[in-house]
Amino acid sequence: MSEYEAIIGLEVHAQLNTKSKIFAHSSCDFGGSPNSQVSTVCYALPGTLPVLNQEVLEKAIVAGLAFDCEISLFTKFDRKNYFYPDLPKGYQISQYDKPICRGGQVHFLAKESKLEKTVHLTRIHLEEDAGKLVHSQDPSKNVSYVDLNRAGTPLLEIVSEPELRSSEEAYYYLNTLKSILRYVRVSDCNMEEGSLRCDANVSIRLKGEKDFRTRVEIKNLNSFKAVRAAIDYEIEWQKDMYGRGLTFVQQTKLWDANALKTLPMRSKEMAHDYRYFPDPDLPVIIIEQKYVDEMKGKLPELPSQKKARFIASLGLPEYDAEVLTSEREIADYFEECLQISGDPKKTSNWVKDEVLGIINKDNLPINKFKIEPTRLGSMIKMIASGEISGKIAKTVFEEMLNTTHSPSEIVARKGLSVVRDDKELEIIIEKVLEENSEAVNSYKKGKEKAFGSLVGAVMKHTKGKADPAIVNKLLKDKLGN
Ligand code: ADP
Ligand code: MG
User: Does domain 422-478 have CATH number 3.30.470.20?
Assistant: First the structure.
């Protein structure tokens, strides 16, 4: 059978984490009781006028700069007209032909196929969210309620070029998008809470074919897993259609996460169906280049830059750098520890294996982790200087998790510091040699293994607190090597 390739473009909606709505003063907090965060503008009462929230514009520019977009110095809002009960105005305020950002790109690594890729962005524009319909669960009632809390929440729509070629690429593209939006602190990007939503446009064509074929737009993807599964399902569906000599029309489908299927919803609407026109209630926006440059200067270090720095100047392996820079807060925690410990690799190991192990298991953000970076950093410094062994450090770490004590307090209080006093160790070694004459004899006859058991016996006597390097040396001296 001839070989098909997939063509995928994503339209991502990220909710901006502003305090108030895009054109009104009411709150954008998640989870309030129905219609408790609605102003007269959100209700679309006659005579009310929208006023742009400046923070929304700033965050859109920051996001655009983070993706290397061109920021439009002239931008405006347009009305997208349609009827639905969750949209009392009868139109959504969006951006049509003058989006706030154009172009730009996302660079990512598709981990399983180890493919590095750059996908271009078509545009990023601003728009308001609609309200929500809540359908009664009581079958005898057969009613739906309107909750307008979400109406007017600011959204960024990020549209990619159709350059993704597999569900895997779509998945890692989306992860990178999320990571960058969170780094620059413009959105929480929580798919489960709906602050990140994604529609996937999918078509297939024969390899080598020039033109694109009919696409299907899939909506209702509310997890990263769903994005992957829905795209794979849709690719197979289209292959099957063409395989049977059938064609289909451009359409919108819904992903059913229970049935693991895409289901037809409606034939695709076209831009002209919406009768877009400039919103006469809002002035056009003119942005000065100087303002954009200033914002660019304030952009934080992005994940890819941080990762490169961790590898080049801290000498960390690529894998460590990748894990530590996955979230800005984790990278900050690591760097604060490192400032005190002075040992990049040891600090990386403790943060990525122990700290992340616990917070991932408990599903906690790192700033809620019990051990502050200063305490962990001091403990790692004690390991690096040989004051405590790695084994004792585990005990100290456990103790720090349950108390607010510093590592040195814990070591002092529990008498955990390493025995490095040669005199003290010599006495213990004499005793061990006396008690283990058999091992001593077999070592002298050339059995190297016996030496290990003697080291073990010394460690046991000191409860693991002796410095193994010193024990080795002293034992060899005593045994006449
Ligand atoms: P609309 O707003 O009507 O959904 P757009 O032209 O803005 O349409 O495109 C939406 C998305 O569809 C973009 O991400 C684009 O890359 C993608 N896309 C366009 N054509 C195809 C195609 N033939 N196959 C897959 N994706 C496509
Ligand atoms: Mg669309």
Answer: no
